[in-house]
Amino acid sequence: MSHHIVEVDNVFFKYPDGTSALRGVDLEITHGESVALIGENGAGKSTLLMQFNGSLLPTSGEVRIGHALVRGKTLPEIRRTVGMVFQNSDDQLFMPTVEDDVGFGPFNLGFSGEEVARKVDLALEDVGLPELKRRSPHHLSGGEKKRIAIATVLSMDPKILVMDEPTLGLDPKSRRSLIGLLKSFSHTKILASHDLDMVAEVCDRVVVIFDGVIEADGPVGKILGDEALLKRCSLEPPSGMRNCPFCGGVKS
After folding, report:
1. Predicted TM-score (pTM) above 0.85
2. DSSP alpha helix (H) spans, 14-162
3. Cross-strand bridge partners of residue 162
4. Rounded to an integer, what distance in angstroms lies between the CA atom of residue 41 and that of residue 129?
5. Residue 100 resides in a domain
6. Is the confidence at residue 106, as pLDDT, over 80?
7. Which of 43, 80, 209, 250 sits 20 to 30 Å CA-CA off 12?
């Protein structure tokens, strides 16, 4: 499967209770881009993220990954291409040890024990936590859990990394560490987040979602510098781009 493009074509999504979450979304993301989805709670960010690996399928419209339609029979290959890290790391960490969790995906894909071990070691090196290999994931800090959750995805060699609120609940040191990790990845990255300072540092492009539609899409500086747009969508500029309350100028 070619991994060079993500295409969302006129996608609508309605939950079983009748809630309309996406209303005619069109989006294209090319290989190597680092894209943030931003918007207020309930705007549709997480719903859109889950379309990319088939966790949710459109009510109508189409999603294609590498020109392959996301649907039932393509889901195994789609999920090898698109690695999803959920908002709550505990949703992805359920095995007795970190090694077991990180190796779970490759093992179930049929890799040999030797190859699984190699993939585990490489993924843990990538997230900078090889020393946690034998630890129980339930005894880790929030920042460590988040990085191990990323490792469980990286061990499957995805071409696209999708993350929902990656810095949520992290202390400043863990947040800074995670930002450094995200900046080091060469993967296509699609992040949904309220942390606009992180978005400004990690992403090149920002897509603003408001009430289930794309309100704006453009370079990070242009979008995050548009205070009227952000205010209209119930957002605030990142702290680094707000006017200084003491001198009236923009913070450096």
Report:
1. yes
2. 45-51, 75-81, 98-108, 113-126, 142-154
3. 84, 190
4. 32
5. no
6. yes
7. 80
